[in-house]
TrEMBL record:
This is Death domain-containing protein. Residues 104-113 have a biased composition (Polar residues). Gene3D superfamilies: Death Domain, Fas. It comes from the Eukaryota.
Length: 749
């Protein structure tokens, strides 16, 4: 044989058997035959005792390998390659025993001490394919009704042997992921060359021997200043961080109070979360902290000191070793609504001793929480029905966390009324608000301890307004996390608002637009309900939409060439329709991108339109009432809007209990936020505050909506000389209407 090979040119390369998958697998093929009493006849041997062929009585011929070739010291110099090597034929019992040992699934140890694991055989391969098919079928059934099922990739499954770094399916998985990455819309988009040095420096930080998880923004800015010709300006540096955040390379929140640090290893924040948001099997066993997480799962409360104790564990202390980092982590978790710092809307400073953690609580609400019989004559109901069939639990946890910034949690026997997917919020001494989730519906019950006839419309409307704003903010957070650009107007289309009442053992709801047009409706239980009290949830939609008298000639010509003030622009924003504002804005000479940028910052429609008009005014180009009137004509909107804007409402009836020229007390101002609802910007402008003062309120109280209203009232009282009841009531009348004054302060016509 060697002489024959010498006639050819060839090279010999060694390839381990474990890499020759097909020959190796075929040589170990398992033949399953269920028929009994089959005596296999050995037909012949090949030259080497490594293998032999077997022929069955049915005419099938198979090749068999001996299990192992053990190295020997025997001398084979006198053995010719062409000679038949003597070999003792195994008897039938030996063959059967060999097949049994070949089929063993257990690893075994050789004489040298090496552990051998049996390879995957044909029967295992068939079973693997069958399990893959079953798994794919189960996944298909599970996600078939999911709204995003078209984007879920589960047709290609990879079963990887984690013990084998050379598993071929690892390469297949890598190839598949690269293919998916190529299909992403952002793939291949050019990045600024000036970013390259800073990206390299960040990469070196991540791969350093002593890896950093967090870095101060000032430190990274220092690296930036060392990059000579590639130094980024402050705005470019900020943009770089935000883009890197959107790509998932780092975490930078860019919000006041949490912009000092940058998380360069995003997984580090996940590991920190595991300190208290984790499964029971991973709870610590240390005596000093063993009770912290069980108590947290029952009450939803964790003390700051207990949180610090958890972070003293070795693996967490390594992640966040300094006090500054721990404070930063707490502020980030509050920003994400994972931790909720309980605060009253009075806006008192200082840090809370404990936090509420809605996502960790396991205890379900007591049965009395859902007793509709007890609520029948005491409650009015509100529902947000999400149009998406798949609603993550985390959405409700974040909603509850945000809602707790609006209203304080109620306590019973010293325990917060916080449960799994349910909570009780305190409105005042007479009213409470219960929130829970049923499928894709968020149900809100406003309950008066005496009768629902005692529920003030302004309190119900203000709660509805704040909860709606909170829900839109939460939905915006989730959509932006998924990389989607979505406007406030589009987010309002993601859910339907309904009003309802307790009925039987549940609740009956009717869409708001139907409730406005009907005095009664018949529910599925064949019960007739009235809608009058249910509309207390809604603000007075007729306010600000009164028409001018037929003989109105419009605004005087002399006024057309004057410039509008901040109050004029705010009043104009209050009467304009958000659906036509974009076209109106373009006719003022502005651009679409300006409007979109403002929409992403200000979620209230009136606030967004006002800030857009302020942007137009700051351009200084033809900023007159004439320009506004021309734009209104082009979009075919009501030209008499300007009549309402310029009309001053100076007639104010006497208010019972105090004089117009007195200064409101702190206690009186503290009662207004729950009644006024969320009207920070309109109220502040009508009270004569500067935009900078109002924006500072947003920075100090980014989530406490009622706190923002109260803070505006305090600034007005402290900084404005005209801080009288008269000016306050005139501003409230302009923002909420004369009927609001009648209901709340005993005003007469």
């Amino acid at each position: 044989m060697l002489l024959r090979l010498q006639t050819d040119d060839y090279s010999v390369n060694y390839k381990p058997g474990k890499l020759m998958f097909v020959p190796d697998m075929l040589s170990r093929a398992y033949i399953k035959d269920d028929r009994d009493n089959i005596s296999d006849d050995i037909e012949c041997f090949i030259n080497m005792p490594r293998s032999y062929t077997i022929q069955t009585p049915y005419g099938n011929t198979y090749r068999r390998n001996t299990k192992h070739i053990i190295k020997t010291n025997e001398n084979f110099e006198n053995v010719s390659l062409d000679d038949e090597i003597p070999y003792e034929l195994p008897n039938e019992d030996t063959v059967i025993e060999k097949e049994k040992s070949d089929n063993s699934e257990q690893p075994y140890t050789t004489r040298s001490g090496r552990t051998i694991r049996p390879p995957i055989r044909y029967k295992d391969y068939d079973e693997l394919e069958m399990r893959k098919a079953m798994f794919i079928g189960e996944l298909t059934k599970l996600f078939s009704s999911n709204d995003l099922h078209e984007h879920i990739i589960y047709q290609t499954l990879f079963f990887i042997d984690a013990r084998n770094k050379d598993d071929p399916e690892i390469h297949q998985l890598t190839t598949r992921l690269v293919d998916i990455a190529f299909k992403q819309p952002s793939w291949g988009q050019p990045m600024p060359v000036a970013w390259v040095p800073l990206e390299i420096q960040l990469s070196e930080m991540k791969t350093a021997r002593i890896c950093k998880n967090f870095v101060k923004k000032s430190e990274l800015q220092g690296y930036n200043l060392q990059n000579d010709d590639f130094v980024l300006t402050d705005s470019q540096f900020e943009n770089f961080l935000k883009i890197q955040h959107s790509l998932g390379k780092l975490l930078y929140f860019g919000e006041h109070g949490i912009d000092d640090f940058i998380v360069i290893q995003p997984s580090a924040l996940v590991n920190v979360l595991r300190s208290f948001v984790t499964d029971e099997m991973f709870w610590p066993k240390d005596k000093e902290i063993v009770e912290i997480l069980p108590d947290l799962s029952k009450t939803g409360v964790i003390y700051r000191t207990d949180l610090y104790k958890l972070w003293e564990q070795k693996h967490f202390k390594k992640l966040i070793p300094t006090e500054d980092l721990r404070k930063f982590i707490i502020e980030v978790l509050i920003h994400l609504d994972i931790l909720v710092e309980p605060k009253q809307y009075s806006g008192a400073g200082g840090s809370a001793d404990f936090f509420l953690v809605p996502c960790t609580i396991k205890e379900k609400a007591p049965s009395s929480f859902f007793h509709t019989e007890e609520m029948d004559e005491k409650a009015i109901c509100l529902s947000y029905r999400l149009k998406k069939s798949s609603v993550p639990s985390a959405l409700f946890f974040k909603l509850i966390g945000s809602a707790l910034n609006v209203l304080p949690i109620k306590e019973t026997d010293g325990r917060p009324c916080l449960y799994y997917k349910a909570a009780v919020l305190s409105v005042d001494n007479d009213n409470e608000c219960r929130i829970h989730m049923e499928g894709n519906r968020i149900v809100v019950n406003l309950i008066n301890r005496t009768s629902r006839l005692q529920i003030l419309p302004d309190i119900a409307a203000s709660i509805q307004e704040c909860l709606t704003l909170t829900l839109t903010n939460v939905l915006h957070f989730y959509y932006t996390c998924m990389g989607k650009d979505i406007k406030q107007f589009d987010i309002l289309k993601l859910f339907d608002t309904e009003v309802g009442t307790p009925c039987g053992k549940g609740f009956c709801f009717i869409p708001v637009n139907e409730a406005i047009t009907k005095k009664t409706w018949t529910c599925e239980n064949k019960t007739v309900h009235t809608t009058d009290l249910l509309l207390n949830w809604m603000l007075d939609e007729t306010f600000g939409k009164e028409e001018c008298p037929p003989d109105c000639s419009g605004i005087p010509t002399v006024v057309l060439f004057e410039s509008p003030s901040e109050k004029h622009l705010m009043r104009l924003a209050s009467v304009l329709d958000i659906t036509m504002f974009h076209d109106f804005f373009l006719h003022l000479g502005m651009e679409t991108k300006d409007w979109h940028n403002i929409q992403y910052t200000y979620w209230q429609s009136v606030d967004a339109m006002f800030m857009a008009l302020m942007t137009w005014r700051d351009t200084g180009s033809m900023v007159t009432f004439k320009k506004i009137l021309d734009a209104l004509e082009k979009v075919e909107d009501n030209q008499h809007h300007l009549c309402k804007v310029l009309k001053e409402q100076l007639e104010l009836p006497e208010i019972a209990g105090f004089g117009f020229q007195d200064t409101p007390s702190e206690s009186f101002l503290s009662t207004l936020p729950n009644k006024l609802g969320y009207c920070v910007l309109p109220l502040g402008i009508e009270l004569g505050l500067r935009i900078t003062d109002i924006e500072s309120v947003f920075v100090r109280h980014p989530k406490q909506l009622f706190s923002q209203v109260y803070e505006v009232l305090k600034i007005w009282k402290q900084k404005t000389p005209e801080n009288t009841y008269l000016n306050l009531m005139l501003a409230i009348q302009r923002v909420r209407g004369k009927q609001f004054l009648k209901r709340n302060f005993g005003c007469d016509n």
